[in-house]
Amino acid sequence: MSDYSYPYKDAEFLINEIIGFDEFCQSAGLDEVNSELVSAIFEEANRFSTEVIVPLNVIGDQNGATLGEDGVQQTEGFTEAYRQYVDNGWAGLAFPEEYGGQGMPKLVGTAVDEIWQSSNLAFSLCSLLTHGAVELLIKHGSEELRNAYVTNMVSGEWAGSMNLTESSAGSDLAAVVTRAVPEGDHFLITGQKIFISWGDHQMTDNVIHLVLARLPDAPAGSRGISLFLVPKFLLDEQGNPGERNDVHCVSLEHKLGIHASPTCVMAFGDEGGAVGYLVGEQNRGLVAMFTMMNDARQGVGLEGLSLSTRSYQQALQYAQERLQGTHSDGSRFPIIEFPDVRRMLMTMKAATEAMRGLAYIASAEIDLARYSSDPEKAARHSSRIDLYTPIVKGWMSELAQEITSLGIQVYGGMGYVEESGIAQHYRDARILTIYEGTTGIQGQDLVGRKILANNGEHLDDLLAEIQLTVDELNASTELSGLAPALQNAVDNGRTASQWLLDNAGNDRNVAGAVSVNFMMMLGYLCGAWVMGRSAVKAEQLLSTSGDDAFLEAKLVTTRFYFEHLLPRADSCFRTILSGSESMMALAVEQF
Ligand SMILES: Cc1cc2nc3c(=O)[nH]c(=O)nc-3n(C[C@H](O)[C@H](O)[C@H](O)COP(=O)(O)OP(=O)(O)OC[C@H]3O[C@@H](n4cnc5c(N)ncnc54)[C@H](O)[C@@H]3O)c2cc1C
User: Fold this and answer.
1) Is the pLDDT of residue 543 over 90?
2) 440 lines ligand 1 (CB under 6 A)
3) Does residue 319 surpass a pLDDT of 90?
4) How many whole angstroms separate alpha carbon 150 and alpha carbon 97?
5) Averaged over 513-525, what is the pLDDT?
6) Is 268 helix (H, G, I), strand (E, B) or coil?
């Protein structure tokens, strides 16, 4: 069973009613973009996806990428599907028109990415990486590099890849040892990168690797890392792929999920040195790389939503069909009627809707920052993006573990059997908390760079905005019952922030000890905020809109979220206040 359909109603409710897309487009001067056009885009993406990309998901799982003499060979059918994806203009949907893109807002790109990711995560990963590489080159590449590479990457004719990890440099990128030696107008790169997603394949005429490496005289640590563009094929005088560069995939990992996404060991310079071009300033490569990493981190958070949605849709269908209960008259009924199966399905439904809300709101912040003509407002939106990124990545990828696992549970024994197809989502989802920075790294980023570094000001700003929703709930006769729980979570957020500011300086373990709980607490809180806003809007629309069933379901789902998921924020809060003591008390030998 592999049916999938984009949840239009929820997405369009969010985009139109919560985010206010049409008003935003008007204020941003995007005269030709509106919600009607976006609906048509979603419909076409959904059609293409269900007809072409969804059927390749199981095929890719069972017949992963392989390595042969000519490099990595992707799963059969992927090249043709990718070709159609490019020919239909999907690759450049949300890129600037100046580079041949269609200039759609990031929010539209994110929503359409949800469709690709839900349909086939392994397939979509190739474009996710190219996307980040383009953002990086537009922001940090020289004019020469931008002119030579970006247009072909925007169109999808060439793909991008991200080369950070080495065997001794995973979370700790300061340990990178790949070397870059200057030679004329370029550098010669030597070293080995591991775990490189889509590091090689035949779907595109070129693969543009973005590679972290060290110059010979570079200072030690993260301040001595530079960034290089290393094409698989060097460009000839006409700018077309020509001579093969000295970079090759030397082996592929066998792994738990995303089998169709080749995870490559990449050797640079085995024959003397791969030609690379400096991107940005020498020794400031990590700063530039963060443009790609932040883009990918939000993308991986979205993957959590996408796989959870896919798993939910399948579980729901199964629960409606699987007969297990028997009525007193002897007739049988489907498992969806059991309260405990409802608990699982409602958890899946409420979690996916809350995740979608947060992911789309975070994407809309990127548009708001980009199109704002007021520098102060743009800076505020940028700070908000910074704060959201680790929450989107960390909370959503962690929640996806539970939701895709519940998908299996709804199926019972059949869930554990590969034939039913639900287990693939669980296996595919397992990487999400690991790549693009583990959950531990997201927590540290949140607590260190996004809270402590600005004295909690950016978080205060977010909590003040959530407080407005508490006030709206309080003002509503129908919804005031939801207000105390959200108020409590906001108050806990404020107390935890102050506690962190007071204690992080006294004990060097505190920030690391509480960071993941902090991130999860804010994730559940942001989810409640989105659901609370949705409930307020649904309540207002109920008297005017034709879709009462959707709006009523939104109100019930919000109540479920507040009763069943939001209390987890309270548990995280109490754990935060216990600090690091019991966590760090045992000597290493006592384990
Ligand atoms: C399928 C797959 C695809 C990947 N794709 C890419 C890719 O395209 N490009 C690329 O460059 N890399 C890629 N990676 C690598 C991935 O980003 C790393 O595996 C990840 O960053 C973790 O690094 P590590 O494996 O070395 O684990 P380690 O860094 O050794 O971490 C092990 C454990 O220690 C914890 N830990 C480590 N340091 C800290 C710390 N400072 N604070 C708290 N906890 C810490 C981690 O959270 C983790 O639980 C991929 C990996 C896989 C498996």
Assistant:
1) no
2) yes
3) yes
4) 12
5) 98
6) strand
Which tokens is 372 given? 């704002």
Cα gap 159→131, rounded to integer Å: 9
C-alpha 173 to ligand 1 mean position (Å): 10
Predicted confidence (pLDDT) per residue in 354-367, tens digit: 999 999 999 999 99
Q: What is the pLDDT of residues 65-80, one digit of tens each?
A: 999 999 999 999 999 9
CA of 195 to the centre of ligand 1 (A): 9
Q: How far apart are CA 537 and CA 481, in angstroms?
A: 16
Residue 455: C-alpha distances to residues 53, 460, 461, 480, 504 (Å): 46, 9, 12, 32, 11
Q: Is 171 in the pocket of ligand 1 (CB under 6 A)?
A: yes
Alpha carbon of 130 to ligand 1 centroid (Å): 20
Instruction: State the pLDDT at residue 1.
Output: 45
- At 545, the pLDDT band (50, 70, 90 cuts) reads confident
What pTM was estimated for this model as a whole?
Answer: 0.98
- By most ligand atoms within 8 Å of CB, the mutation choice from 171, 441, 580 for ligand 1 is 171
Higher-pLDDT residue of 2, 256 = 256
Mutate to test the pocket of ligand 1, among 434, 515, 518 (most ligand atoms within 8 A of CB): 434
CB of 90 sitting under 6 A from ligand 1? no
Question: 435 in ligand 1 pocket by Cβ < 6 Å?
Answer: yes
DSSP state of 109: H
Mean pLDDT of 269-295: 96
Q: Beta strand pairing status for 186-197 and 247-252?
A: unpaired
Take residue 159 and report the two structure tokens written for it.
């793909």
Q: How far is the CA of 430 from the centre of ligand 1 (A)?
A: 13
- Rounded alpha-carbon distances, angstroms, from residue 379 to 332, 375, 383, 426, 585: 59, 6, 6, 38, 42
442 touches ligand 1 (CB under 6 Å): no
